Amino acid sequence: MQPLRVTVWGENVHEHKNPKVGAIYPRGMHSAIAEGVRELIPGAVVTTATLQESEHGLTVEKLAATDVLTWWGHMAHNDVSDAIVDRVQKRVLEGMGLIVLHSGHYSKIFKRLLGTTCSLAWREADEKERLWVCNPGHPIAQGLGTYFELPQEEMYGEPFAIPAPEEQVFISWFEGGEVFRSGCCWRRGNGKIFYFRPGHETYPTYLDKNVRKVIANAVEWARPAGVWIDSCPNAKNPPEKIGVKK
Ligand code: ZN
Q1: Is the pLDDT of residue 139 over 90?
Q2: How far is 105 from 80, CA to CA, in rounded Å?
Q3: What class has domain 5-115+184-222?
Q4: Residue whose C-alpha is closest to residue 10's, from 43, 46, 61
Q5: Pairing state of beta strands 45-50 and 5-10?
């Protein structure tokens, strides 16, 4: 079996603007996310790509050689070129998996694929998050307890303006009382999409062992099961003769 090819995409802006973020993630958030996937899926080929690279590091060749793409962005969503969004969407429809993290809920690619505004309520107050596993048999929940906690996170609350998830894996509760659908699955075309909420840049969330486990599980879950190249063929030669009286 061909090794799983994972591309971890990072906006890579906060790390250079906010010293607090740079101190937690000295090599960038994308490097920490990639490190977690490498650690938990030793056979995978894990590379990173960032906004600042030519074509945001997502050339046609790179995407063709990507089985699962993870996406973290926040302040520079609008700097992502529409041509690259088109390209990523096409690959998801063909079968590439996509894991959208935290503030990626407002990325162009997530909104494009889901077709809704993807808005939510939010608050930065250093509060505790408890992630409840609401689907213990799901592949993305394997190896976790009934819940896990992050001591400090940004709060995301409902209403979360997404189409109803096809599968719900986690629901978060926050110290302030809000709840949020924090682990959601969809399929678009032949590709699988997972949204995972935690990951505000000023907290060491991507160093957390449970968060790393969820991302690794999601990467394995989203691995393509096949490829469907959309072509809209004119079916001129039907398998049965049409109009012949029986
Ligand atoms: Zn955030």
Answers
A1: yes
A2: 14
A3: alpha beta
A4: 46
A5: parallel
